[in-house]
Amino acid sequence: MHEYTSTARVWGLTCPGFPEEVSRARRWTRDILRGSPLADDAELIVSELSANAILHTASGGVGSFHLALAVSPKVVALSVTDEGGTGTAPKVERPSEDAVHGRGLGMVSVIAHRVVVHGSHSGYTVTAELFTDTQPGGHPC
């Protein structure tokens, strides 16, 4: 293989910050990953990260959020970038049993093999990675 050739394929999509765009993000992810054993997990992760961007950041309403999906022979990486506007970075929370919110990023961190948060109050990118060839016991679920 040539040293500048990559086997990864990357797609991007920018969505307005409306709740109905979450279903568009899911459908887009499902269409790209059609036939992959990781498609269901990826769809769930994109749904959760997109909803978080709309509900908890300036992306909701008049803003937008951006999705990136990278597929290589070993990894499927899903990233959602929001428009920030919050004083804190996205993080896994431990909500009480009767809490209505706060479980989503925890769920993503259980499904994904790795979750990374980058950014600042002007915008965060949450990337979840799913490995394609895990060893037995290698997946956290």
TrEMBL record:
GO molecular function: ATP binding
One Pfam family in the UniProt entry: HATPase_c_2
SUPFAM superfamilies documented for this protein: ATPase domain of HSP90 chaperone/DNA topoisomerase II/histidine kinase
Record InterPro entries: Anti-sigma-factor_SerPK, HATPase_C_sf, HATPase_dom
Domain Histidine kinase/HSP90-like ATPase span(s) in chain numbering: 19-128
Annotated protein name in UniProt: ATP-binding protein
Keyword field: ATP-binding, Kinase, Nucleotide-binding, Serine/threonine-protein kinase, Transferase
